[in-house]
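Sequence in, structure out. First:
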Amino acid sequence: MATSTEFLDFVLEQLSGIGALRHRKMFGEAMIYLNDRPVILVCNDTVFVKQHDVIRDLMEGAETGIPYKGAKDHYVLDIDNAELSKQVVLELEKVTPLPKKRKKKNEA
């Protein structure tokens, strides 16, 4: 089951006001970026964040899960709790590097 557009819109609404948010669809699922840093995976209408030391205390007692086959265990973020979600995402933004730009193939 792919993530619905309505759920993705809800996630973005819950995080509004913390910075430049955008999303990118991937295989029916989505990556959400804050200020160009990939901070959230949304898979099957569930919000996942990496298990990182900077959010361990904020995510204490949170459910965990695997967002897609072959992925590591992630925290499941309670996106209904907008304040907690914003805190978690802002902390992750501080430690998440910008994605490396891919080199474009030269056309012959």
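Second:
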Amino acid sequence: MRKMTQRKGSRRLWRILAWRAGPLVLIIVLLSGTLLTGHLATAWRTVLDTAVATSITAGFDVRHVLVSGRLKTDRQTLVEALGIRIGEAMFVIDLEAARARVASLTWVRDASIRRRMPDTVVIELVERRPLAIWQHQGELFVVDSVGDVIGGAQPEDHPGLFLVVGPGAPAAAADLLALLGLTPDLTPRVLAAVRIGQRRWKLHLDGGIDIHLPEEGMQEAWLALAGMDRSNGLLSRDVTTIDLRLPDRLVVRLTEEAKERLDHEMTEGEDT
């Protein structure tokens, strides 16, 4: 009885070793196969083909492809870039090459691809998020949340995006839009933003008003302006420019009509 128990234990041990050592042996054999030539290479290719066919018969073939994060990426374009066929052996898929092809697609910022044994390939996409339309040298481009141009994206397909203009504008657009998001009552009036010297912003508002934001303290200046507009309707008055670049004062330029009215009122008030 003891000998029978020992034989069963030995067989179980060999099965465990074969299972765990199998992948290591396969890797060693695969590496050594690269050195083979001639008849040995042909024989080795036959061994590999047999191993692949055996793995498919055992159920280690691609039967499911699961994709998450796909919103903008065209399905057929993704399938072609992936290059993985249903029924293909799981062990022969070059995951890194497939990931590189998928990551090069227009809307894909990053991608990960992994095997879920025995028969599933899992793809996780991180797509680019359109943030703004960038006007540069007379052309329009769609830029994403980190300021990169989304190649192939058409501006006319994104009519609701904010317009930024000038060199350096895309990289700074996310911070500006975050700032404008703090004043939902005032933000809809902002039509476009021009990057000046890659250091500061000039905002174009409806009604022909320009707002010069400072390089430093931009948030404080903008929130102060929003507060003045709520309290006394500053932006509803006859002004063309509001300069917020000086930390201790606000400089306002009036419209020509307002200047004439002011001059007329001052003249009428003088002694004759």
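Remark: The two ends are 133 Å apart (CA to CA).
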